[in-house]
Amino acid sequence: MDEKPLLKREKFYKIAFISILWAGILLRIFVYCRNISFWGDEASIALNLMSKSYLELFKGLDYLQVAPPGFLILSKFILNIFNPKIDYIRDLLLRFFPFVFSCLSLLVFYKFSKKFIKDKKTLLFASTLFAFNPCAILYAAQLKQYSLELLVSVVLMSLFYRIIITNKIRIADFVLIPLSMWFSLSSLIISASGFIILLFKKSFNFIKLLPAYLLSFVVFYFFSLKSIKQVNYAGMYHWWSTGYGFFDLRHPMRLFIRFGELFSFDKTSAECLGIFFIFLILFSLIFSKKFNLLSKVFLSLPILITIILSGLSLYPIEARLILFLLPSFSIIIALNDDWKLRDWLISFFCIASFSASIYYSINPYKFYTSSREVVRWLKNHYDGKSEIILDNSWHRYGYYLQDYNNIRLLNSSCSPYGDLCKSELESLNPGTYYMLVQGNPIDKLPKNIEIKDSYSLYSTILYFKKK
Questions:
Q1: What pTM did the predictor assign?
Q2: pLDDT digit string (tens) for 191-210?
Q3: How far is CA 14 from CA 8, 123, 363, in A?
Q4: What sign for the dihedral angle of Cα 101, 103, 108, 109?
Q5: Which end of the chain, N or C, is surrounded by fewer C-beta atoms within 10 Å?
Q6: What percent of the chain has pLDDT over 90?
Q7: Is 27 in contact with 357 (CB distance < 8 Å)?
């Protein structure tokens, strides 16, 4: 048998894997170094980091934010170590760990998937889907915990897979698995899946691991999670209920849209991609002979638990909150059998995901509010005495205005501009004001407001005189 074609094929796959890995990292470097200004949630987390002690970060955050304490401690630590005074550098610094976690997840996933997948073509598909997911790339450059949750998910799946398949347990497992919940709330779902499988396999490792894990959970619950729930549960429940964040059998398309939003932020394309995405997952789980039953259960159980929890209104299925399931999604889709259309369909999905990654890296969608830029304009034009007006989404601007005291907060939202905002502006005393708001309401302001100067990007700053 001629070995030359085989060697050429091996060389091709080696180059392809290296190219995918580096392209995924370079795309993350691009979005990180672009360093767009903080949006609302990022600014809210940053304000918590700057105002709370390390101990207070375990007890729940202000401004309706939830993040695992381990992520918050790491972020505050790097902020305290360098303490930059320039907001551009501070933003870059606070996003450093999410960027590093996102890059590390590529390496860990590749190592994990090589143990799970033996076929090089299948491994190439899985690596492409994981490396070029738009949502994963987006959160490589945001002060949010989702890159860390994705990394923890891959690590936990690797550990449990080894324990389940080889029945071998290591000392590090008694540390990493119990500690995972401190750095990733979604790790509870991955760990629950692993323990359920160990229980049904009647593995003695279930008994070995459970005491340390339960001890960590009890400490975590009473030291942190209980306080987080008391501070934020009611507000978060209302937010996700009104924002269609929970799975509901009465609205079956919601699941398709939410899963599709992992690849597109446009509702129509997300719906189409979501239908196609779920079809590939179900087809692979039902018909693929590359799966044995244990592998199917191992990969699909975290997805099933997440959907059940969402149906019980305990866990939202927003794209960023199911990003930790990306390892399962990537492998399940890639492991479709060699039926005629298999390569074409999966190739189409890989191309769609790659194209969306490029598009959203260049066009950062709603997360770019230009708050840092408009505040910089204000600092260069501020007259030193006029009040600065912010609406109830003030955090994105307040984060950059921490040295200013002459700030008035409105009770209503001026984005989109509405009657409540108009009423509050009409009640202002005569004088000059600066108002920062997302969008541009310049044509909708009350008639007794005279615009004297303005600057607009994705946000707008108006310098006006109230008659």
A1: 0.94
A2: 999 999 999 988 899 999 99
A3: 10, 11, 32
A4: positive
A5: N
A6: 63
A7: yes
Sheet with 387-390: strands ordered across: 407-409, 387-390, 431-438, 459-466, 449-456
Structure tokens at 81: 């170590």
Task: Tell me the helix, strand and coil percentages in the chain, rounded to 5.
Answer: 65, 5, 30
Query: Does pLDDT of 371 surpass 90?
Result: yes
- CA nearest to 304, candidates 456, 422, 189: 189
Radius of gyration of the chain measured on its C-alpha atoms:
24
Residue with tokens 């509405």: 418
Token couple for 383? 């007259």
Tokens of 94: 């606070």
Of the candidates 230, 231, 254, the one whose C-alpha atom is nearest the C-alpha of residue 241 is 254
Whole-angstrom Cα distance, residue 259 to residue 133? Answer: 12
Predicted confidence (pLDDT) at residue 178 exceeds the cutoff of 80: yes
What's the Cα-to-Cα distance from 46 to each of 71, 117, 352, 443, rounded to whole Å? Answer: 12, 40, 34, 33
- 99-139 per-position pLDDT tens digit: 999 999 999 999 999 888 888 888 999 999 999 999 999 99
Q: Tell me how far apart the alpha carbons of residues 50 and 65 are, in angstroms, rounded to a whole number.
A: 14
Highest mean pLDDT (candidates 89-93, 225-229, 255-259):
89-93
Residue with tokens 């924002």: 243
Q: How far apart are CA 139 and CA 162, in angstroms?
A: 28
Q: How far apart are CA 406 and CA 384, in angstroms?
A: 9
pLDDT at 1: 46
For the chain, give the number of residues: 467
Tokens 């960023």 found at: 320
164, 127 in Cβ contact below 8 A? no
